[in-house]
Amino acid sequence: MTAQLILLGDSIFAGWRNGQISSLLRDRLAGRLPRYQITLAAVPGETTDDALNRVTQDTANGDDDIVVIGYGANDASSTNQITADDFYDNLRTMIEIIGPDHVILLTPPYADAAKTQDRTKNSVAAYTQAAREVADKESILLVDLHQAMVTSPDPQALLAADGQHFTDLGYDLLADLIVSSVHAMENR
Fold first, then answer.
1. CA–CA distance, 118 with 131 (Å, rounded to integer)
2. What is the per-residue DSSP string for 16-81?
3. What's the CA gap between 13 and 11, in Å, rounded?
4. What is the pLDDT at residue 1?
5. Confidence at 164, pLDDT banded by 50, 70, 90
6. Which residues neighbour 38 within 8 Å (Cβ) at sequence distance 6 or greater?
7. Could you give the CA distance from residue 38 to residue 49 in angstroms, rounded to a whole number?
8. Nearest in space to 178 (alpha carbons), one of 103, 123, 85
9. What is the 3-state secondary structure (H, E, C) of 69-103?
10. 2 CB neighbour count, 10 Å cutoff
11. What pLDDT, in 10s, does the model give residues 65-90?
12. Neighbouring-strand partners of residue 5
């Protein structure tokens, strides 16, 4: 049986481009992680509240299955009523349901607050810190996507014109981080 790599997240994982879901991330991972069947379980606009309604223990069926959880961009939006504490609790619940041995957690991505306006630098920082605390508490592998983006040579080059979604360079960075974390998990 082929191991599964399940991408559980929002529009970033869904490869949102030109108002549509695409295979941008899946394609970048497929050639580099041939051992895995890559399952896109991403819903644009989804928050961790929404995700709780569809996360089941069946998310990771096999011993070698890995679930990469990538949320926070929508949770941090002022248009949603999800606090950083709610985000923390939701992530912990998802990890408990899936099983911590199967989870890689990403922090929320960097967003250009001047363009998004509903995601401030401080709000994204609070949700990023919540993800870090969850990873520490659950002793799971954390990928600090936010840090990787803000310390890149040109964070703006990673973002599409909307200041939230990713360019090809952004997806290259995300794929690199996921591939590295999958290899790290395999070596645990």
1. 20
2. -BTTB--SHHHHHHHTT-TTEEEEEEE-TT--HHHHHTT--GGGS-STT-EEEEE--TTTTSTTS-
3. 5
4. 62
5. very high
6. 4, 5, 7, 26, 29, 30
7. 24
8. 103
9. EECCCCCCCCCCCCCHHHHHHHHHHHHHHHCHHHE
10. 11
11. 999 999 999 999 988 889 999 999 99
12. 38, 66
| Cα 117 from Cα 125, distance rounded (Å) | 15
Residue with tokens 């996360």: 55
CB atoms near residue 156 (< 10 Å): 12
Residue 145 confidence (pLDDT) above 90: yes
107: which DSSP letter? P
* Residue in the block written with tokens 């991330």: 25
Q: How far apart are CA 108 and CA 126, in angstroms?
A: 10
Q: pTM (2 decimals)? A: 0.95
